């Protein structure tokens, strides 16, 4: 994923609502759709995109009162940073697993210019 795509993913209105809503408590797509005004088809599209990026995961398959299985999703994103430095866009995700994902640029050596 390039840095622009990564930044778009987390700043998209629906994706951001899903990540915030699932930060502390697992929720189903139906709950997310109803509580946050996200059309159900768009909700599933964002859920799948966030899962592909490893920012959201299905943590449980619950059984409803009607006997239907539903997936409960939990945010895996702990921190996200978007940087624009020296003409380069960079994005960094810190995940619940302890993994850090970096997109764009060389993160090991950020050079600063000295003023003369």
Topology at a glance:
Layout: H1 3-11, H2 13-21, H3 29-36, H4 40-52, E1 56-63, E2 69-75, E3 77-85, E4 88-95, E5 100-103
Antiparallel strand pairs: 1-2, 3-4, 4-5
Helix pairs in contact: 3-4
Number of strands: 5
- How much of the sequence lies in strands comes to 25-35%
Q: Quickly name the level 1 CATH class of one domain.
A: Mainly Alpha
Give the radius of gyration: 17 Å
Compute the average pLDDT.
89
Strand order of the largest sheet: 3-4-5
Q: Which H/E pattern describes the elements?
A: HHHHEEEEE
Which architecture name of one domain does CATH use? Orthogonal Bundle
Question: DSSP helix count?
Answer: 4
Main β sheet profile: 3 strands, antiparallel
**Silhouette:** elongated
Sheet/helix structural class: alpha+beta
The CATH superfamily of one domain bears the name Winged helix-like DNA-binding domain superfamily/Winged helix DNA-binding domain
Fraction of helical residues = 25-40%
Q: Can you characterise this structure?
A:
This protein is α+β, with helices and mostly antiparallel strands and 116 residues long. The chain has a domain at 3-76: Winged helix-like DNA-binding domain superfamily/Winged helix DNA-binding domain (Arc Repressor Mutant, subunit A, Orthogonal Bundle). Helix content is 34%, strand content 31%. It contains four helices and five strands. The strands form two sheets. The protein has a three-stranded antiparallel β-sheet, covered by helices on one side. Strands 1-2 form a two-stranded antiparallel sheet. β3 and β4 (88-95) form a beta hairpin. The protein is elongated and about 55 Å long.
